[in-house]
Amino acid sequence: MATAHTKTLSRIMNLPSIILLFIWMIVPLGMTIYYSFQRYNLLTPSRRGFNGWFNYEFFITDPAFFEAIGNTLLLVTGVLAITVIGGILLGILLNQAIIGRSIVRILFISPFFIMPTVSALIWKNMLMNPIYGIFAHIAEFFGANPVDFFAVIPLLSIIIIVAWQWLPFATLILLTAMQSLDQEQQEAADMDGASTLAKFYYITLPHLARAITVVILIETIFLLSIFAEILVTTNGGPGTASTNLTYMVYNRALLQYDIGGASAGGIIAVILANIVAIFLIRAVGKNLEA
Amino acid sequence: MARKVTLQRKLGFTALAWFLGCIMFFPIFWMILTSFKTEIDAIASPPLVFFQATWENYQLVLNQSDYLKYFGNSVVIAGGSTILALLVAIPSAWSMAFSPTRHTKDVLMWMLSTKMMPPVGVLVPIYLMLKYMGLLDTRTGLVIIMMLINLPIIIWMLYTYFKEIPSEILEASRMDGAVLWKEIVYVLLPMALPGIASTLLLNLILAWNEAFWTLNLTAANAAPLTAFIASYSSPEGLFWSKLSAASTMAIAPIMVLGWFSQKQLVTGLTFGAVK
Amino acid sequence: MKLSSMLIGACSVLALTATAQAETITIATVNNGDMVRMQGLTADFTAKNPGIELEWVTLEENILRQRVTTDVATNGGQFDVMTIGTYEVPIWAKQGWLVPLTALQNDAAYDADDILPAIAGGLSVDGKLYAAPFYGESSMVMYRTDLMEKAGLSMPDAPTWDFIADAARKMTNRDEGINGICLRGKAGWGENGAFLTAMSNSFGARWFDEDWNAQFDQPEWKATLDFYVGLMNDAGPAGASSNGFNENLALFQQGKCGMWIDATVAASFVTSGDSTVADKVGFALAPDNGLGKRANWLWAWSLAIPSGSQKQDAAAKFVSWATDKAYLELVASKEGWAAVPPGTRTSLYENPEYLAAAPFAQMTLDSINAADPTNPTVKPVPYVGVQFVAIPEFQGIANNVGQQFAAALAGTKTVDEALAEAQLITTREMRAAGY
Hints:
The structure holds three protein chains of three kinds. Chain B is mainly alpha-helical. Chain B has helices at 7-34, 39-42, 56-64, 67-98, 104-113, 119-132, 139-163, 167-175, 180-209, 213-216, 225-230, 240-260, 262-268. In chain B, α4 (67-98) packs across α9 (180-209). By secondary structure, chain C is an alpha/beta fold. Chain C has two domains: 22-130 and 298-357, D-Maltodextrin-Binding Protein, domain 2 (3-Layer(aba) Sandwich), CATH 3.40.190; 138-297 and 384-432, D-Maltodextrin-Binding Protein, domain 2, CATH 3.40.190.10. Chain C has helices at residues 2-15, 33-40, 42-48, 61-73, 88-94, 102-106, 117-122, 145-150, 161-171, 192-202, 219-235, 245-253, 266-270, 312-323, 325-335, 352-357, 361-370, 394-410, 415-432, and strands at 24-30, 53-59, 81-84, 124-125, 128-129, 132-144, 179-182, 257-263, 281-285, 298-304. Chain A binds chain C through residues 41-45, 47, 54, 58, 61-63, 129-132, 145-146, 148, 150-152, 231, 235-241, 251-252, 254-258, 261, and chain C through 62, 66, 69-70, 73-74, 91, 95, 187-188, 237-239, 241-242, 247, 250-251, 256, 392-393, 395-396, 399-400, 403-404, 406-407, 409-410, 412-413, 418, 421, 424-425, 428-429, 432-434.
């Protein structure tokens, strides 16, 4: 057990990061809360003044607000579903004896190194474009009509792009977790004549629980604030079909230059993100113990 | 006793893995291929797989922009912020991993939650702050901002990594009379080196690709490769090969680094999941 | 050891905060061809102005706009010259964010009176010029002469919308990949917002009445949008709701469009080497509907000096260099007359060499002159601007309204639904803005 002396010392060691993060949290948060009660548009500085709850009311009564919440959740859950399930399957596959495994692994993890804007541009221009895109050419080759992805299935298209970026991350973590799977336990199950499915359900999946939790937590944090991909591909449209909360905040901040409104939107987004986080921790957090 | 792997099974998995791997990699492959096409070939229909390759796009891009300047800024910002964050995070993770309190879990969660504020919501406050501190469009300013952004993830990764190390080893060294900093530098760090390496790598990648703050807080001096991309992304006219060339140049350094260090990345990303 | 050397490296890097040299001016500009060409001519400027160095920040339009707006509004002082459009200039000038270019206006050699009156008017407030136009544009009809002939029609110089619609439907041959007409459909205030606002003017619609009430519930807007959606469904390309200027340009260059109504600067692209139809393109004025207004807009990418700049004199020298007559001659001597930035100076349109090199010159000039920002549509309006409304709230509102129009074009909403949404969005925003 650590002595009292080292305990104090360890508190001190923890302080710099806590202080830094506290400042990084409280200063912008404080300023944002302050601005959220102000009438403050960058382009009309003369109209500045106290605005009560107006910014909040205005943001929540936006006709796109509830759709945006729905889209945010759909985007997060959609990408999580694809990456976690895909990651498990790919993890199992890559855990097999494969010729040229390290090269295959490189192929799989490469999308993770691509800047979000670049990957959105590749997908939009060269893959999903209804006239020049590869998918359109494939469809034409089979005599089908090309799909106009960003007009017909905008949100799903964005989910696909984002999932492509995050699948490598999930695969990597789940693969490493799988590599530590107890071989003897597997073999014992083999002897008992357990089916592959049963082995997966009773041995592999529980073993992966913690890794899956980590994937879900980290990805959720990044996915809640996705907007570059939306900005590049659909601009939140058509209509508001692919607008999520972050994009709504972006819309207020950098298209309207409405700092008051954007601040209120930011605070609302933080509150909702925390609600999601609490649910998540309730649902999967126990896997983090021990 | 290793399980027997029949040749058939091995070939089957190999074929499947290569097939799926190629699909995953295809968008990147296609971008690189397009960067060697002329603009007219790039939007040819049906798409060209065989064509007269040209370096012209790369030459144009290099002539038009000072690639090395952007590249240098990316290296400084991504590298500087990651190293700085590691310096702050290692003691912190050490403290939480080896002398946890009732609140350690909450503190960790709180740290992660600082990442939940959408950056666009706080751009103007941060812009004004940096302006008053004279840090707009400086690498120092961006290193600090990127450090703060990545700090929670770094602490988290290191924490889970340190948790794997049996505390008895550290205590043994303490019995031997090692002072604290020696304990950390000579006992903890060597053991945790793979974890630290992968933390470093992951955060280099995240910082390299961060495209909101790096774009909005810079002008001419500190602009990294994300700004370089923004000068090619949608001009008047479709210039996909030029864009592809610029994109390839922007992602190549980090991708090559990732390829060479994939082993470290794999071992470190466990987040203690192995346990 | 390694770690410590890395630390030293990191610290020395941190110490290297970029210090600006005495006379380096930073220019924020958009990544369009004419601007990139200007960047390539930096050496000419530095030769004529020793002691002034140029730093370029070249960004795509949307990012440029958010960067310069944030900077100018917070007085950030990051840029000494900003490339902005006709929309920003009057708004920013009224806030006192721009330096008036009085010295240029009084400089006989610069000859500010030579700037096309319609363009200069859009960049001036109370007779003072606040930005110097780098290139100006209106919009017009570009059409394929061969397809028009095949359809048994001939394009008048000043067509009506009915003629355009009829011709578009007759030219369409989807089996051969020919679409009768390509129009902007991509959402955005500078994309479909610009096109549809200009088009609505010719249908007699307006954004606001004299009391700033949104007008999307009026029959003129319904007529505009019904006409547009119907025409695009019958004769437009697939995926039209994602097509902006760039996408339509590529389509037209590849011979997939019979007609295209868009910016006059496109004329030099569709008649140049990249175009497969370069020798088969004709030009006409933007169409009208017999109401006395044509569907053409007015825009000028211009150079302005923010008041926060510490180097206003050097910046003024640069603005003068980039927008004077000598610059046009410089470009012409290097790349030929067809490549000079169009639409800013009367003298250019009197230059026989230019007129010979640019077959679209006269139509461009006529289109620019036909636009009237102070009196854009049939009914009176409280605002200035042809394809925009020069109030700060406009770009945000028009982006969201543009999204509704894109949804109507994509078929995910009906025209009536889209207009009702547009009305709601605009009313809400205008109420919040205190109009």
